[in-house]
Amino acid sequence: MSQILVVDDEPAIGWSLRGLLDDEGHDVELAATVDEALGVCRRFTPETVLLDVRLPGRDGISAIPDLQVAAPGAPVIVMTAFGDLDTAVRAVRAGAFDYLVKPFDLEHVAAVVGRALAERAGLARAADAPPAPSVALVGRSTAMQDVYKKIALAAAADVPVLVTGAAGTGKGLVARAIHAASPRRDGAFVTTSLAALAPTALEGELFGRLDGGPGLAERADGGTLVIEQVDEASAAVQARLLQFLDHGEVFGGPAGRDRRVDVRVIATAESAPTRPIQRELADRLGAFTIAMPSLAQRRDDIEPLARAFAAASARGSTPVLSPDFLQALARRDWPGNVRELRSAVEHAAVVAHGGTLRPEHLPAPAERHGRDGLEDAAGGVGAAVKEWAAAARAAFGGLPEPDLHHRALKLVEATLLREALAHAGGNRTATAKLLGLDRATLRTKLRSLGLDD
Questions:
Q1: Nearest-10 Cα torsion for 417, 419, 422, 427
Q2: Which pTM was predicted?
Q3: Which range marks the domain in which residue 312 is found?
Q4: Which of 87, 92, 239, 377 is the most exposed place for a label (fewest CB within 10 A)?
Q5: Residues 180 and 104 both lie in one domain
């Protein structure tokens, strides 16, 4: 049997937790304020503490250091109904063992308490650490509460981090949040996307060039290096990145020796990687992994996200979001995730000219990405090919070698390449990825079709 202290000013929660923990065989004491909890500790030695954040007189997080003195070695589990990233970071920094968001599942509470009792060393942190700067992450859904907790834990531990998730979910914001809440916050924050760098220049850009020019890792010395789309890296670059994570060395130039740098690496990758990440690198990066949920997994966050985006886009007073507008947002699928939602809200704010945002101000929904939309498009292509074939037979059928097959393929390929280039904003690496080609093949095709301008 263990002794547990529950500090919460809501009697129903205190009674509920006491009943749960009594059934688990523990001896439970209740307190409604911080002062009352400290008084209990003078006659009762808790082996773990469940502590609410919002309490009369003094908030729970500020009291964690005093409770750790009054109950040495007792892990403190923070409870709150108002979970956000700032609260999670403050709780972990103050020394909280874990972070529970109300309303919580009692079985989950029992599991956390059991783990806390088994690991009484906990995650003690300095209580006087400066507060973390605010970061642009919005949402209080259950999925985001888990992300906030992991950001807080990652910020407190100087290990590599892998952030995964679909495009548009906010992986880059997570990386910034980790850096901003970490002891490296005053150091450099250097970020690069492997998809934006030429494959032949990747290693030099990251780890130093033959002419002695510093790579991005060296520029991030003392801070954080974010490598976006690490799944775009070739096997050779992945091997070099693994070596860097193990030894922290960058290229020293033509006359110098390799030198060590002090860099924390955060990598991002799609949920379904373009290339398989090598097992050794995946294991090294996966020492701490944060999976960003899609917007479909956090639909409760659509309204607060929309309000935040509307406020950020306002040049004067924040636009009013009508109930119909919010309902229209809730009905959409958002395949482009948070990024697509932001674009839609910003578009609506421009169209509304500073007035109330209404459904008619939204852009048309994104094109369907499912099988039905693809089949509809294929039907249109089939009809167009039939029409072209009839015209081509009339125009070229009398020639010794009409070669309709070659003519059709050239026409379709040129159109496809133009569309892919336009979609990728002219980025050849991204275009090659979209088409499933390597860059050399894409370059050859563009040249042969007269599109390499």
A1: -30
A2: 0.58
A3: 295-361
A4: 377
A5: no
